[in-house]
Amino acid sequence: MDLSSALSIYDLNRAEFSREDLDRGFKRLVKKYHPDRNQTFSEWCHIRMTEINEAYELLMSFLEKRPVAKEPPPERERRKETVYPGAQEQTHLKRAAALFFEGVHIYYDYELTKRSLRQEGVWRYHYRKALKFMEKSLEELQKHGLSKGGTGERLFSFAVLFLEDIQSFESRIPLGARGNNTHLAYRDATEKMDRSFSDYFSSRERDREKYLTPLYKASHLLILLIENYPQTEWYNLALKKLNLLDSFLDLQDLLRSGAIAF
Protein backbone atom coordinates (compact mmCIF):
# COMPACT_ATOMS: atom_id res chain seq x y z
CA MET A 1 0.00 0.00 0.00
CA ASP A 2 1.31 3.48 -0.87
CA LEU A 3 0.79 6.74 0.99
CA SER A 4 -1.84 8.05 -1.44
CA SER A 5 -3.99 4.94 -0.96
CA ALA A 6 -3.69 5.20 2.82
CA LEU A 7 -4.69 8.88 2.77
CA SER A 8 -7.64 8.01 0.54
CA ILE A 9 -8.90 5.32 2.95
CA TYR A 10 -8.88 7.83 5.82
CA ASP A 11 -9.96 10.78 3.63
CA LEU A 12 -7.03 12.89 4.83
CA ASN A 13 -4.93 15.66 3.33
CA ARG A 14 -1.24 14.77 3.16
CA ALA A 15 0.07 18.12 4.39
CA GLU A 16 -2.40 18.90 7.14
CA PHE A 17 -3.62 15.85 9.03
CA SER A 18 -2.79 15.39 12.72
CA ARG A 19 -2.60 12.42 15.05
CA GLU A 20 -6.08 13.33 16.36
CA ASP A 21 -7.48 13.32 12.80
CA LEU A 22 -5.97 9.88 12.19
CA ASP A 23 -7.31 8.35 15.42
CA ARG A 24 -10.72 9.89 14.83
CA GLY A 25 -10.76 8.42 11.32
CA PHE A 26 -9.78 5.00 12.63
CA LYS A 27 -12.66 4.96 15.12
CA ARG A 28 -15.10 6.01 12.38
CA LEU A 29 -13.92 3.25 10.03
CA VAL A 30 -14.01 0.58 12.75
CA LYS A 31 -17.62 1.44 13.53
CA LYS A 32 -18.45 1.04 9.85
CA TYR A 33 -16.41 -2.00 8.82
CA HIS A 34 -15.59 -4.14 11.85
CA PRO A 35 -16.67 -7.79 11.19
CA ASP A 36 -18.50 -7.94 14.53
CA ARG A 37 -20.82 -5.20 13.30
CA ASN A 38 -21.34 -6.75 9.86
CA GLN A 39 -21.63 -10.48 10.38
CA THR A 40 -23.44 -11.00 7.07
CA PHE A 41 -20.36 -9.72 5.21
CA SER A 42 -17.77 -10.67 7.82
CA GLU A 43 -15.21 -12.06 5.35
CA TRP A 44 -15.25 -8.91 3.22
CA CYS A 45 -15.10 -6.72 6.36
CA HIS A 46 -12.11 -8.66 7.61
CA ILE A 47 -10.24 -7.83 4.39
CA ARG A 48 -11.33 -4.21 4.72
CA MET A 49 -10.12 -4.02 8.33
CA THR A 50 -6.75 -5.43 7.28
CA GLU A 51 -6.43 -2.55 4.80
CA ILE A 52 -7.52 -0.04 7.47
CA ASN A 53 -4.93 -1.36 9.93
CA GLU A 54 -2.18 -1.33 7.28
CA ALA A 55 -3.08 2.22 6.27
CA TYR A 56 -3.04 3.34 9.92
CA GLU A 57 0.51 2.02 10.42
CA LEU A 58 1.72 3.70 7.22
CA LEU A 59 0.15 7.06 8.12
CA MET A 60 1.48 6.93 11.69
CA SER A 61 4.95 6.24 10.35
CA PHE A 62 4.62 9.16 7.91
CA LEU A 63 3.33 11.43 10.68
CA GLU A 64 6.24 10.63 12.98
CA LYS A 65 8.81 11.24 10.24
CA ARG A 66 7.23 14.47 8.98
CA PRO A 67 9.66 17.28 9.83
CA VAL A 68 8.60 19.81 12.44
CA ALA A 69 10.21 23.23 12.41
CA LYS A 70 12.10 23.93 15.62
CA GLU A 71 13.61 27.18 16.76
CA PRO A 72 17.25 26.99 17.85
CA PRO A 73 17.70 27.30 21.62
CA PRO A 74 18.80 30.69 22.96
CA GLU A 75 22.55 31.17 23.05
CA ARG A 76 22.64 31.11 26.84
CA GLU A 77 21.05 27.63 26.91
CA ARG A 78 23.75 26.03 24.79
CA ARG A 79 26.33 24.15 26.79
CA LYS A 80 29.47 22.31 25.76
CA GLU A 81 29.32 18.84 27.27
CA THR A 82 32.13 17.92 29.60
CA VAL A 83 33.89 14.72 28.58
CA TYR A 84 35.04 12.51 31.46
CA PRO A 85 36.11 8.86 31.81
CA GLY A 86 33.09 6.61 31.37
CA ALA A 87 30.94 9.41 29.90
CA GLN A 88 30.39 7.53 26.63
CA GLU A 89 29.28 4.39 28.50
CA GLN A 90 26.82 6.45 30.56
CA THR A 91 25.43 8.01 27.38
CA HIS A 92 24.82 4.58 25.84
CA LEU A 93 23.19 3.35 29.04
CA LYS A 94 20.89 6.37 29.30
CA ARG A 95 19.87 5.97 25.67
CA ALA A 96 19.13 2.26 26.15
CA ALA A 97 17.15 2.95 29.34
CA ALA A 98 15.18 5.72 27.61
CA LEU A 99 14.29 3.39 24.72
CA PHE A 100 13.19 0.60 27.03
CA PHE A 101 11.03 2.75 29.30
CA GLU A 102 9.47 4.52 26.32
CA GLY A 103 8.31 1.10 25.14
CA VAL A 104 7.01 0.27 28.63
CA HIS A 105 5.07 3.55 28.80
CA ILE A 106 3.45 2.87 25.42
CA TYR A 107 2.56 -0.66 26.54
CA TYR A 108 0.71 0.54 29.63
CA ASP A 109 -0.67 3.83 28.27
CA TYR A 110 -2.54 1.93 25.57
CA GLU A 111 -3.67 -0.83 27.99
CA LEU A 112 -1.90 -3.49 25.95
CA THR A 113 -2.10 -5.95 28.83
CA LYS A 114 -5.49 -6.72 27.20
CA ARG A 115 -4.34 -9.20 24.60
CA SER A 116 -7.55 -8.91 22.59
CA LEU A 117 -6.62 -5.31 21.65
CA ARG A 118 -3.22 -6.10 20.18
CA GLN A 119 -4.48 -6.91 16.69
CA GLU A 120 -6.67 -3.83 16.26
CA GLY A 121 -5.37 -0.76 14.35
CA VAL A 122 -4.33 1.83 16.95
CA TRP A 123 -3.40 -0.79 19.55
CA ARG A 124 -1.76 -3.11 17.03
CA TYR A 125 0.46 -0.29 15.84
CA HIS A 126 1.44 0.78 19.35
CA TYR A 127 2.01 -2.79 20.55
CA ARG A 128 4.48 -3.37 17.74
CA LYS A 129 6.04 0.03 18.41
CA ALA A 130 6.45 -0.77 22.13
CA LEU A 131 8.15 -4.07 21.31
CA LYS A 132 10.41 -2.34 18.79
CA PHE A 133 11.60 0.19 21.40
CA MET A 134 12.27 -2.50 23.99
CA GLU A 135 14.07 -4.80 21.56
CA LYS A 136 16.19 -1.88 20.33
CA SER A 137 17.12 -1.18 23.96
CA LEU A 138 18.40 -4.74 24.37
CA GLU A 139 20.50 -4.36 21.22
CA GLU A 140 22.01 -1.13 22.56
CA LEU A 141 22.87 -2.73 25.89
CA GLN A 142 24.48 -5.77 24.26
CA LYS A 143 26.37 -3.69 21.70
CA HIS A 144 28.31 -1.78 24.33
CA GLY A 145 28.91 -4.65 26.74
CA LEU A 146 27.47 -5.54 30.11
CA SER A 147 29.75 -5.40 33.13
CA LYS A 148 28.88 -8.18 35.59
CA GLY A 149 26.54 -6.87 38.29
CA GLY A 150 26.57 -3.41 36.74
CA THR A 151 23.67 -1.10 35.92
CA GLY A 152 23.48 -2.25 32.29
CA GLU A 153 23.34 -5.93 33.19
CA ARG A 154 20.59 -5.38 35.79
CA LEU A 155 18.49 -3.35 33.37
CA PHE A 156 19.11 -5.97 30.65
CA SER A 157 17.97 -8.77 32.99
CA PHE A 158 14.70 -7.03 33.79
CA ALA A 159 14.09 -6.07 30.15
CA VAL A 160 14.52 -9.68 28.95
CA LEU A 161 12.15 -11.05 31.61
CA PHE A 162 9.59 -8.29 30.99
CA LEU A 163 9.56 -8.88 27.23
CA GLU A 164 9.27 -12.63 27.72
CA ASP A 165 6.34 -12.13 30.11
CA ILE A 166 4.27 -9.80 27.93
CA GLN A 167 4.80 -11.91 24.80
CA SER A 168 4.17 -15.29 26.40
CA PHE A 169 0.98 -17.20 25.73
CA GLU A 170 -1.71 -17.18 28.39
CA SER A 171 -0.79 -19.57 31.17
CA ARG A 172 -2.34 -22.98 30.52
CA ILE A 173 -4.06 -24.07 33.69
CA PRO A 174 -5.33 -27.70 33.64
CA LEU A 175 -9.13 -27.88 33.72
CA GLY A 176 -9.12 -29.83 36.95
CA ALA A 177 -7.05 -27.14 38.68
CA ARG A 178 -9.10 -24.14 37.62
CA GLY A 179 -11.14 -22.38 40.24
CA ASN A 180 -9.54 -24.07 43.25
CA ASN A 181 -7.83 -22.13 46.05
CA THR A 182 -4.37 -22.49 44.53
CA HIS A 183 -5.51 -21.14 41.18
CA LEU A 184 -7.25 -18.22 42.89
CA ALA A 185 -4.10 -17.44 44.89
CA TYR A 186 -1.96 -17.51 41.73
CA ARG A 187 -4.42 -15.30 39.86
CA ASP A 188 -4.62 -12.87 42.79
CA ALA A 189 -0.81 -12.58 42.93
CA THR A 190 -0.37 -12.05 39.19
CA GLU A 191 -3.24 -9.55 38.95
CA LYS A 192 -1.76 -7.54 41.83
CA MET A 193 1.59 -7.62 40.10
CA ASP A 194 0.31 -6.57 36.66
CA ARG A 195 -1.91 -3.81 38.06
CA SER A 196 0.91 -2.41 40.23
CA PHE A 197 3.33 -2.41 37.28
CA SER A 198 0.79 -0.45 35.27
CA ASP A 199 0.18 2.05 38.08
CA TYR A 200 3.89 2.41 38.79
CA PHE A 201 4.96 3.13 35.22
CA SER A 202 2.00 5.46 34.62
CA SER A 203 2.41 7.58 37.76
CA ARG A 204 4.51 10.61 38.61
CA GLU A 205 7.87 9.99 40.24
CA ARG A 206 6.75 11.19 43.68
CA ASP A 207 3.81 8.74 43.67
CA ARG A 208 5.62 5.59 42.55
CA GLU A 209 6.70 4.27 45.93
CA LYS A 210 3.12 3.65 47.06
CA TYR A 211 2.66 1.08 44.30
CA LEU A 212 5.50 -1.08 45.63
CA THR A 213 3.48 -2.39 48.60
CA PRO A 214 1.13 -4.49 46.42
CA LEU A 215 4.21 -5.88 44.67
CA TYR A 216 5.70 -7.06 47.96
CA LYS A 217 2.37 -8.73 48.75
CA ALA A 218 2.36 -10.40 45.34
CA SER A 219 5.91 -11.58 45.96
CA HIS A 220 4.86 -13.18 49.27
CA LEU A 221 1.96 -15.02 47.61
CA LEU A 222 4.19 -16.33 44.83
CA ILE A 223 6.79 -17.55 47.32
CA LEU A 224 4.09 -19.46 49.20
CA LEU A 225 3.00 -21.15 45.96
CA ILE A 226 6.59 -22.12 45.14
CA GLU A 227 7.19 -23.53 48.62
CA ASN A 228 3.92 -25.47 48.84
CA TYR A 229 3.61 -26.82 45.30
CA PRO A 230 7.04 -28.05 44.06
CA GLN A 231 7.14 -30.06 40.84
CA THR A 232 3.73 -28.82 39.71
CA GLU A 233 2.51 -26.39 37.05
CA TRP A 234 2.06 -23.83 39.85
CA TYR A 235 5.74 -23.98 40.72
CA ASN A 236 6.85 -23.17 37.15
CA LEU A 237 4.25 -20.45 36.60
CA ALA A 238 4.90 -18.75 39.94
CA LEU A 239 8.69 -18.99 39.55
CA LYS A 240 8.64 -17.10 36.23
CA LYS A 241 6.53 -14.32 37.73
CA LEU A 242 8.69 -14.17 40.85
CA ASN A 243 11.90 -13.89 38.81
CA LEU A 244 10.41 -10.92 36.95
CA LEU A 245 9.25 -9.33 40.18
CA ASP A 246 12.62 -9.82 41.91
CA SER A 247 14.39 -8.26 38.93
CA PHE A 248 12.02 -5.29 39.02
CA LEU A 249 12.55 -4.73 42.76
CA ASP A 250 16.30 -4.89 42.17
CA LEU A 251 15.83 -2.15 39.59
CA GLN A 252 14.43 0.13 42.30
CA ASP A 253 17.90 0.67 43.73
CA LEU A 254 19.05 2.00 40.37
CA LEU A 255 16.04 4.28 40.01
CA ARG A 256 16.39 5.65 43.54
CA SER A 257 20.10 6.33 43.04
CA GLY A 258 19.49 8.09 39.73
CA ALA A 259 21.66 5.61 37.80
CA ILE A 260 18.74 5.25 35.38
CA ALA A 261 15.56 7.27 35.05
CA PHE A 262 12.31 7.42 33.10
Q: Can you tell me the residue ranges where pLDDT is under 50 for at least 5 consecutive residues?
A: 75-86
User: Taking Cα atoms only, what radius of gyration do you get, to the nearest Å?
Assistant: 22 Å
- Count structural domains: 3
Question: What is the terminal-to-terminal distance?
Answer: 36 Å
* SSE class: mainly alpha
Shape: globular
Largest sheet features = none
Total number of beta strands: 0
The total of helices stands at 9
Mean pLDDT score: 79
* Topology as a string of helices (H) and strands (E): HHHHHHHHH
Beta-strand portion reads under 5%
* Quaternary organisation: single chain
Helix content: 55-70%
Question: Could you characterize the architecture of this molecule?
Answer:
The protein is mostly helical and 262 residues long. It has 3 domains: 3-65, Helix Hairpins; 88-168, no CATH class; 169-262, no CATH class. It is 66% helix and 0% strand. It has 9 helices and no strands. The protein has helices at residues 3-10, 19-33, 42-65, 87-109, 121-143, 151-167, 181-202, 212-228, 233-257. The longest helix has 25 residues, at 233-257.
Descriptors for this entry?
single chain; about 260 residues; globular
Any chance you could write out the topology, listing elements then pairs?
Elements: H1 3-10, H2 19-33, H3 42-65, H4 87-109, H5 121-143, H6 151-167, H7 181-202, H8 212-228, H9 233-257
